[in-house]
Amino acid sequence: MTNSDYIIKAAIKKVTEKLSEILVEKIEEATNIAQDTPAILKKEFDNLKESIIEEASKMEKAENIQENEPTDNFANSKIKKALNEIKSINKQIDLLNKTINNQIK
């Protein structure tokens, strides 16, 4: 074997050892991540569930407000109608008072 043959064999051996070392490290990392994954997923699922419940509550409140608005609008329209009638009656009273005052003079 020549000197370059030894260099090639040594390079292949060291590269193989390094790749094996990296592979073992990455497998260990993946194993650790896989062990933590259920806890991480549970936490994320719990957060999602809480945000869904919160959003549903907001939507329910908004719907309740919208359901109450027509009643409020109905009451407001009744009040406006009554105020308009009162205004009309006041105008008629003013006109009647002016007529009476003119007849007295």
Care to describe what's here?
The chain contains one helix and no strands. The protein is mainly alpha-helical and 105 residues long. It is rod-shaped, with a radius of gyration of 43 Å. The model has no long low-confidence stretch (mean pLDDT 85).
Summarize this structure as a short list of keywords or feature phrases.
1 helix; 0% strand; 105 residues; rod-shaped; mainly alpha
Short description:
Helices cover 97% and strands 0% of the residues. With 105 residues, it is mainly alpha-helical. The mean pLDDT is 85.
Portion of residues within helices: over 70%
Which sequence of SSEs, written as H and E, runs from N to C? Answer: H
Question: What is the number of beta strands?
Answer: 0
Strand content: under 5%
Write down the Rg: 43 Å
Helix vs. strand class:
mainly alpha
Please give the largest β-sheet.
Answer: none
- Residue-averaged pLDDT: 85
Can you count the helices? 1
How far the N terminus sits from the C terminus, by CA atoms, comes to 143 Å
Shape: rod-shaped
| Low-confidence parts | none
